[in-house]
UniProtKB/TrEMBL annotation:
Catalytic activity: Transfers a segment of a (1->4)-alpha-D-glucan to a new position in an acceptor, which may be glucose or a (1->4)-alpha-D-glucan
Enzyme class: transferase
Family: Belongs to the disproportionating enzyme family.
Keyword Transferase: yes
Keywords, comma-separated and alphabetical: Carbohydrate metabolism, Glycosyltransferase, Transferase
Cross-referenced NCBIfam families: malQ, PRK11052.1
GO MF annotation: an example: 4-alpha-glucanotransferase activity
KW Transferase (keyword) present: yes
Species, as recorded: marine sediment metagenome
GO biological process: carbohydrate metabolic process
Name of the featured protein: 4-alpha-glucanotransferase
Coiled-coil region(s): none
EC number: 2.4.1.25
Length: 643
């Protein structure tokens, strides 16, 4: 400890900086004995002006390097756009993209629909469009459709590609495919059904995409063209992660075609159960064109998403797109297939019992091992943040408490019997802040449910915007807090994708549905929920009337007041007058829909992630009532900005 030591910092930009020190001259913070050997820990302050970024540090003595680590220099807080910093309060729409109907889509919302929605929404005053997670799912297993149980969170769901927008779609060979009787019948079915038929949508999209790919590949990707140059650059930048997904998708499709079990890598033949197995490399070599097809899909999806994001910028939206990062990936995912050391497949992420899930929740998502994450220099989480901030102005982190702790449930155990495992929250928040600034992305943390105060304060100090849901913002006496009391550094909303719509809530349709599918363990619990709902509805009417958010023609007694348009709109405008910097509203409530898109705690008891919107986006914004509501929201937000 009396010898001179040298710290060599190799910066991300290639600069090399050094600092010499003697350990005994530094502050000693820890002394420990392990196997009769005494160890000291010293704190070394670097007198170096290091730029923000990811740097490498090597420690040596007598020219002998004996330790190496990653050094991350991060800003103090996440990025916030200047207009928001200056007090502008904005509103936007949240949408589950797969739910969108339009005159042209193929039974599922696509990136062209998203661009159109951005244009229409911006035209009536919206400053952002919030999306469900648009992560890559499973082309060969389309019914594994939960956006919160993806195959890879770094890459995109190819089903959102607008096939008709790809160069080559008009080729005669492609038109022969899409104009066949069988294709047209399946497409018509996919467009007309009430719920997204993922099997039908995948069938027509894959058939058409493969035909388009053959044309595009021959025209551009086998020649020296700017398209080929761009494609190769995309593949190179995607690295092993992109290759892993493409090989996985090709392999899963191959196994399915052979009639073998293929829902995920746990049931693959033994030689294919790991990305790094020689048999997988052999498969890739023998099926290069199939792998290239799935690389092509990711390239096209990224381009179309970027075009939609650019539409938001051109329209002058303050935020534009905000994306959603799921808390994990499913057990059979490509993300785990290629990095098994990082994930604990003998456990699952979930949540303890709460108001959204009285039995606790088991999400079937293997958690990351915090020790392995550290050993890998946090690169997996860096890549996740960076890729999900791409082509957007904001990122919502689902279950943001995962940065501090996760509820782990051992395989075979009940969700209520799980326990918390903690993560290096300060390191993760630093990385989040760094990527937020690099991508100029405002960060929203979904902090619902059981949230320790330490994470709330840490998130606020680190510039992460809180998530405030009206129905959960209640005082001890049962009254609802005025949205004017919400923190400015927050995004507020009336409902979420895990909750009933306004009509569903008011008419207790969610409780009726929960009873039908056996969600409540006892009749007493259900009756308590009905009684609580009745009291809450009365408190809501009292709040809205007290603030003048609804007129006297809306009743004051819940026993005689049903949900109608004035009450619906009054609740939304009430929120718009609040202090949250961002207000998110659901298209379902604009359309006065009554069915939820997801019921937490269910699997196949309800068609989760499938329920479509009831109206095309083209006609939606032609409605006088919707334009009038949008105008009121914009006015209320401007008033709140000035207040």
């Amino acid at each position: 400890m009396n010898d001179d030591h040298t710290l060599t910092v190799t910066c991300e930009n290639g600069d090399v900086l050094t600092h010499q020190f003697t350990p005994v001259d530094q502050e000693m913070t820890t002394m420990a004995h392990i196997d009769d050997v005494e160890f000291h820990e010293y704190v070394v302050t670097l007198p170096l002006d290091l730029p923000l970024g990811y740097h490498d540090v090597a420690l040596s003595a007598d020219d002998d390097e004996f330790a190496r680590s990653r050094l991350i220099v991060a800003p103090e807080a996440c990025y916030t756009p200047n207009e928001i910093k200056e007090g502008k309060k904005i509103w936007g729409l949240s949408v589950q993209l797969y739910c969108v109907r339009s005159e042209k889509n193929w039974g599922i919302g696509d990136f062209s629909d998203l661009a159109l929605l951005i244009e229409k929404a911006a035209g009536v005053g919206a400053d952002f469009i919030g999306l469900n997670p648009i992560h890559a799912l499973y082309p060969a297993n389309p019914n594994a459709c939960s956006p919160y149980g993806p195959s890879s969170r770094r890459w995109l769901n190819y089903l959102y590609i607008d096939v008709t927008a790809i160069d080559g779609y008009d080729d005669a060979s492609v038109q022969a495919v899409v104009n066949s009787d069988e294709f047209k019948a399946t497409l018509e079915h996919a467009r007309n059904v009430e719920h997204v038929d993922y099997e039908a949508v995948a069938h027509v999209k894959l058939a058409a995409l493969k035909a388009v790919f053959d044309v595009y590949d021959a025209k551009y990707l086998r020649k020296s063209t700017k398209q080929n140059k761009a494609f190769k650059a995309f593949v190179e930048a995607g690295g092993e992660s992109l290759d892993m997904l493409a090989v996985y998708d090709a392999l899963q499709s191959h196994l399915k075609a052979e009639g073998k079990d293929s829902w995920g890598w746990p049931v693959f033949p033994q030689e294919y159960k790991d990305y790094y197995n020689p048999a997988v490399a052999k498969f890739k070599s023998a099926n290069e064109q199939d792998v290239k097809f799935y690389l092509f899909l990711q390239w096209i999806a990224a381009q179309q998403l970027e075009l939609a994001s650019n539409k938001a910028t051109d329209a002058g939206m303050t935020i534009g797109l905000y994306r959603d990062l799921a808390v994990g990936v499913s057990e059979g995912s490509a993300e785990i297939w290629g990095n098994k050391d990082l994930y604990c497949t003998g456990a699952s992420v979930g949540a303890p019992p709460d108001i959204l899930g009285p039995l606790g929740q088991n999400w079937g998502l293997p958690p990351m091992d915090p020790r392995k994450l550290y050993e890998q220099g946090y690169q997996p989480i860096i890549d996740l943040f960076a890729s999900n901030m791409a082509s957007s102005g904001s990122l919502r982190i689902d279950h943001v408490m995962a940065l501090l702790r996760l509820w782990w449930v051992v395989k075979g155990d009940n969700a209520k019997d799980g326990g918390y495992v903690y993560y290096p929250v300060d390191d993760l928040l630093g990385i989040l802040a760094l990527e937020s600034h690099r991508n100029q992305s405002l960060v929203i943390g979904e902090d619902l449910g059981t949230v320790p105060e330490e994470i709330r304060s840490k998130l606020a100090d680190n510039g992460v915007y809180s998530y405030r849901v009206f129905f959960f913002e209640q005082a001890e006496d049962g009254g609802f807090f005025s949205p004017s009391h919400y923190p400015v550094q927050s995004m507020s909303t009336l409902t979420t994708h895990d909750m009933p719509t306004l009509i569903g809530y008011w008419h207790c349709l969610d409780l009726e549905l929960g009873k039908e599918i056996g969600l409540y363990p006892t009749e007493e619990i259900l009756q308590t929920l009905y009684a609580d709902r009745h009291e809450n509805k009365q408190a809501i009417l009292d709040t809205l009337h007290g603030h003048g958010s609804i007129g006297d023609n809306v009743g004051r007694d819940v026993n005689h007041t049903g949900m109608n348009r004035e009450l619906n709109n009054g609740m939304q405008v009430h929120m718009a007058g609040g202090s949250s910097a961002l207000l998110s509203l659901q298209l379902e409530d604009w359309l006065e829909m009554d069915k939820p898109v997801n019921i937490p705690g269910t699997f196949d008891e309800y068609p989760n992630w499938r329920r479509k919107l009831t109206e095309n986006i083209e006609s939606m914004f032609d409605r006088h009532d919707i334009n009038e509501l949008a105008s009121k929201l914009t006015h209320a937000r401007k008033q709140a900005s000035q207040g």
